[in-house]
Structures are given as structure tokens and as C-alpha cells.
Design goal:
Two copies of one chain form a homodimer. Chain A is an alpha+beta fold. In chain A, 27% of the residues lie in helices and 38% in strands. Chain A has helices at residues 14-19, 54-71, 102-119; strands spanning 5-8, 28-35, 39-40, 43-52, 76-82, 84-87, 91-99, 122-128, 131-136, 143-144. In chain A, the strands form two sheets. In chain A, strands 3, 4, 6, 8, 9 and 10 form a six-stranded antiparallel β-sheet that branches. Chains A and B meet through helix 1, strand 2 and helix 3 of A and helix 1, strand 2 and helix 3 of B. Strand 2 (28-35) of chain A pairs antiparallel with strand 2 (28-35) of chain B.
């Protein structure tokens, strides 16, 4: 894997993401791992389905890495997000940020997951016991009962 | 490995630590990975040596996990710390904390690394180009040119 920012339909290996940011100058790596949770507000999820506009999503992940470069000196970032069908406890996203000192690693990793929710065109379809719903990962402001928005509608993002 | 808190002289597998806290109730895992940094304030480290009073160190790691249980609802914690000789970029410590919601995972993981530095009897011997020094991981307040303190002196900690 050449890139440090990728969307994949295969299980994400945490060690692969961490390896991309490990280096002699850094003493700290913070990793955020998002997994599929079974219960949300008492409602049981059976499984999830993620869809993304892959090229755009990878571009946005790389943009988040650049934003982190600007904000935290000497940071290096890698992000992998899975799409397709995921079962309970499967890994949906792995963020790894290495920095010379640990405080920055925590802050930058935290920044990355919030930005993913804001700007990356990825949707999840919740399969509950009593129905399904597409939910935008963009702060989950909008839900879609039938389908995610068309890619053309996303160009302005 | 039965315990969730352990000292080891073998390489730490990140996935093993993360697996201990992954569960259906948790949607977030934060991982802090401490690696051996080559340069500290312009001084080059060749390699490091960690020593610990193992039984006491493992007890203190478990105590940190209990403290996290008290402070963050539904958190689960696992911590592994390596001892012996470590090369540049080797993993010295891995903390994993899972929580239902991500904010808690970041905070609890951050708490864990600070507490490790405060209360766990682990020392590192820096091997620089121009000499060596034992440094207590306890906030690095005290250095020892010859040896780490005797275990008996630690009992009151």
C-alpha cells in the first residue's frame, strides 16, 4: 500500500496503519479505532453497510492529513476507512498520528476523527432489528431512507 | 495472555492489546503507543534499556485500569509495557481503552499514560553516544547515574 490515506473493502490491519507513521523522530503514536457498536440509544444494530465516493473520500482523508501537518509540528498521519458490510465489533476506521511528543498525538488524532465526520463522503446504512437507514458520517445531520445523495450533488463539498 | 496489564521482555503486539478491549458495547478504541525516539533535545539515543519491578509494576498498571473504570463509564483498559533492550522505533508501551463513545476513549487513554509516568516503577537507561543514565519514568524527576533504586525503597509508593 503506497498511500497513507485509503478506503478499502477488506479488514483494516491496525499495525499496517501504525507502521506508516512510525519513525525515529517520533516518540508517540495515537491511534483511534472506530468499531461497530451493537447498541445505540437502546436500539440494536445487526450489521452495518458503508458506502463512499472512494476517490473523493481518499482525497478528503489526505486533506485532513495536510491540515494536521499545518497545525502540529512534525506530525505524520495515516487513515484507513473500510466500506461494505461490517459486523458488530468490526473495525470501520483506523487513524494513526505520530508526533515527537505525546500531547500533540492525542490532539491531532482527535482532530482527525472529528474532521472525518465533517468532510469525508462516507455513509453508513444501519441494519436494525426493525428496519434500515442511511446515515451520513458528516456529523450525522442528515438521514436518507432510500439512498445516499448522488455523487454529483457532492461536488460542491 | 490472561491479564489485561502486563510487563514483557518481548515485542508488544498492538493488536493483542486492542483485542482485549474490543467488544460489542464499545464503538471507540483509543490506543497510545510509546516508541523509542532517536533524538531528545538534540541528543542522540543509540538504544534504551527498561527495567521494572515487575509484580509491582503490573499491580500499578491494573490500578490505573481501576481508576479509569471509576472515572469513565463503561471503559475497558489494557496496558502492556516492555522491558529489556529496545532499539530506535521499538514499542515501549501500548495502552488501549475502549468506551461506548469516542470522547471518553481519548480522555481515558491520555489519563493512563500520565498515570504510568506517575506511579509505575519502570526505569529506562538511556544509551547516548556520550554516556548512559537511568531515568525514572515517574515524571522523569530523578536520574540515577549508577543504578535504579532498590525495590525495598519503593514499597511506600
Amino acid at each position: 500500500m503506497k498511500t497513507d490515506y485509503w478506503i478499502t473493502n477488506k479488514p483494516i490491519e491496525i499495525t499496517e496503519v501504525v507502521a506508516k507513521v512510525t519513525r525515529p523522530e517520533a516518540g508517540a503514536v495515537n491511534t483511534f479505532i472506530g468499531t461497530v457498536r451493537e447498541f445505540t440509544k437502546g436500539k440494536r444494530t445487526l450489521h452495518l453497510e458503508y458506502q463512499a465516493y472512494v476517490a473523493m473520500a481518499e482525497k478528503k482523508l489526505a486533506q485532513i492529513g495536510e491540515e494536521i501537518d499545518q497545525k502540529w509540528d512534525g506530525a505524520r498521519t495515516a487513515i484507513a476507512h473500510r466500506i461494505g458490510r461490517l459486523e458488530i465489533s468490526d473495525i470501520a476506521v483506523v487513524i494513526a498520528v505520530s508526533t515527537p511528543h505525546r500531547n500533540d498525538a492525542f490532539e491531532a488524532s482527535r482532530y482527525a476523527i472529528e474532521r472525518i465526520k465533517e468532510i469525508v463522503p462516507i455513509w453508513k446504512k444501519e441494519h436494525w432489528e426493525d428496519g434500515t437507514l442511511w446515515i451520513g458520517d458528516q456529523k450525522e445531520k442528515q438521514s436518507y431512507t432510500e439512498n445516499i445523495p448522488a455523487e454529483d450533488d457532492m461536488k460542491g463539498k
